[in-house]
Amino acid sequence: MAEVVTSGAVARTVEDLSGPRGLPVVGNLPALVRGGRPHRTLEEWCDRFGPTFRMSMGRTPAVVTADPAVIARIHRQRPDDFQRSAHVSGVIDELGGHGVFTAEGDEWRRLRKMATQALNMAYLRQYFSTITLVTDRLKRRWDAAAESGRAVDVLDDLMRYTLDVTSGLAMGHDLNSLEQTGDGLHRRLPLLFPEIGRRINAPVPYRRRVRLPRDRRLDATVREIDALVRDRFAEAARRMEGGGEPANFLEALVAPLEGESPITHDEVFGNVLTMLLAGEDTTSSTAAWAVHYLAGHPEAQRRVRAEADEVLGEHAFPPDPAAVGRMKYAEAVVTEAQRLRPVAPYIATQPLHDVTFETEQGPLLVEKGTPIFSLHAYGARRDTVRFPDPEAFRPERWLEGALPPESLPFAPFGGGPRFCPGRNLAVVEATIVVATACRGFDLEPDHSAGPVGERASFTAFPVNLRVRLSARR
Ligand code: HEM
């Protein structure tokens, strides 16, 4: 036992915690990544070893916690006392994606202001026409699928959808991946995220010595995005010279915030890439899970449809964000899908100095630099008091008023100063997808590709998620 005393009790150290037995040198890494669902493995270990346990990442000891008090403290005390995992940030920065997600300290404060401003509701109203345009394309794609009788690959379609929305928002560029066939940036960009996940979980950073073909492909994609961003930024600068309100993130970056210095190209690129990465997979997987649950719950489909008919009347799509906000049941479907399938199920951080936590199991001393994995949605499928019958898909539970959404143990967008700034956009997009699906179609599950499953790279995502659409009866 360690001889550290806090609030009268002797604090344990990370070494004193129980946890899964690891292999020499590689520790628990192989067991963690085996099966491609590291978040579920962490949750199973949490069931076995308690809310706060130890594991080893190679030779490095790490803490995993689902203890709400510990997680809330980490959320609250960033960026001063905890930083994002240096390993995760290093992998993203290496690709040139240094931006608000990986920045720390004063640099983070500055970039965070810009990101928050670009994603606030006032801005959202400005690019709402982009969202409507992209939704119309999605609807037409689904009309064609319904007519042909073929099942739709929901995740693929929705990745195209969120990519088009996000690239419109981030740089005013219409990728139009929903209407494209064949290869192109719209096909290569979505490969970045899984590759980041693969690099984060790789036991050996071989790429620093040898570049495999996949690494070279990735480098080429990054260069392609860089060229596009340069182009779009020059265009944004021209537009802003003529006066007028910024209509996308790049245009907002042209004019520095009051008292801030002008942004460099590397910062512009890093932050645009951050938006593209942060906004795409997370939202598409969330919306895809929502469509999946709807396909298995016809009564929920009927409720979404009735609500959308009432709110939208003669409009094909919501005319503004306020109309989306009135579709409470559709939003509850999205929240319930997130509860059952959180797509960003843990946040990896590390303390900037030694810290003693008051955990459910007593005080715990964690040394500076120790990786900490916070399972900020773990309780959502286990807390039978707040979520009776937790495995059931029941969107109504969010309408019954008793549940504060987004408070631990269910915080799908994180918490504290680094709370996801894209939350409003994500909820708007996913709610529109849900309403569009139910308003236009009857949905049925399709298992032709195999049973629906779940995998995780950097974020968690569904596999084999096919749904059969037929025109609304
Ligand atoms: C359902 C969709 C989404 C989920 C579940 C999600 C979840 C999260 C989570 C858990 C974090 C980490 C918070 C932390 O480190 O404490 C985060 C950060 C972030 N998200 Fe999201 N996100 C979603 C969509 C979006 C969208 C659409 C955008 C923008 C286009 C976005 C932009 C960001 C950014 C820039 C950060 C970094 C914030 C910072 O470090 O200060 N996210 N998100």
TrEMBL record:
Transmembrane segments: none annotated. Belongs to the cytochrome P450 family. This is Cytochrome P450. InterPro entries: Cyt_P450, Cyt_P450_CS, Cyt_P450_E_grp-I, Cyt_P450_sf, Cytochrome_P450_monoxygenase. PANTHER family: CYTOCHROME P450, CYTOCHROME P450 12A4, MITOCHONDRIAL-RELATED. Its cofactor is heme. Keywords: Heme, Iron, Metal-binding, Monooxygenase, Oxidoreductase. Pfam families: p450.
